[in-house]
Amino acid sequence: MWKLDHFEVSILFALLASVILGLVTKRTDRERLRYGLYCFGCFMLALFGIGWFMKLLHG
Amino acid sequence: MMSVTSTGAAAAAPTRFPFLTIAIAWLIPGGGHFLLGRRGRAAIIFCSVLLAFLIGVMMRGPLFQLSGASGDVLSRLIQIGGFIGNLAAGIFYFAAVLLGYGPPDQASHTADYGSKFIVMAGLMNLLAIVDAYEIATHQKE
To answer: How far apart are CA B106 and CA B101, in angstroms?
Structure first.
C-alpha cells in the first residue's frame, strides 16, 4: 500500500483538479494556463489557511 | 452584423456526433477530445484521469458497490454517488473490476484517501465529457 500523508494527498488533489478545471473552462491556452494556476493557488491558500486555523483553534 | 452572421454560421454547422462523443469520452478519458481533433487536451485529460485512478488504486482505496447501498438515506446516497463516480472513470474502472481489484473497506485513512481519488478520477472525466459535448455541439471551441 502506498502511504501518503494528508498534506501530500492534498497537493496531488489540488494539482490534478487544477489541471482539469483549467482545461475545460476557458477558451484559449493562455487563459487555461492562467485559470489552472489560479485554481491551484486557491487550493493552496485554502490548504494552508485552514491548516493554520485548525492549529490556532487547537492551541 | 458580423457577430450575427458568424453566430448564425456556427449554429448552422452540423453537430459532430455528440452522443458518440459522449460515449467515447466516457469509455476512454480524453477520447471525446481526441475524436474532435483536440489531441493535446485529450492526452492531458487521459493522463490526469489515469494518474488520479492509479494513485487511488496504489493507496488500496475500495470501490463503491451498489449492493452495499443499504442503511439510512445518507449512507445510500454516499454509496450510489460513489458508485457513479467510480463508473464515470470508464475503461479504468472496468479494467480494475475485470482484473479483480477489490480491496476490503478497512478503517484506514490511506484507503479512505484512495477511495476518494478513484471517485475524483471519475468526476474529472465527467467534466471532460461535458466539455467534449459542448465542443461537439459548437457551444465552445
So the answer is: 15
Interface contact B113-A9, CB threshold 8 A: yes
ipTM of the shown complex: 0.90
Question: What are the chain A neighbours of B109 within 8 Å (beta carbons)?
Answer: 6
All three cell numbers of B44: 492531458
Along the 59 residues of chain A, how does pLDDT read in single tens digits? 788 899 999 999 999 999 999 999 988 999 999 999 999 999 999 999 999 999 999 87
Task: Check CB contact of A11 with chain B, cutoff 8 Å.
Answer: no
Chain A residues closer than 8 Å to B48 by CB = 16, 19-20
Task: Tell me the per-residue pLDDT of B66-101, one tens digit each, with 9 for 90 and over.
Answer: 876 677 888 888 899 999 999 999 999 999 999 999
Kindly give, in sequence order, each residue whose CB lies less than 8 Å from that of residue B135, ignoring residues fewer than 6 positions away. Answer: B16, B21, B32, B33, B36, B38, B141
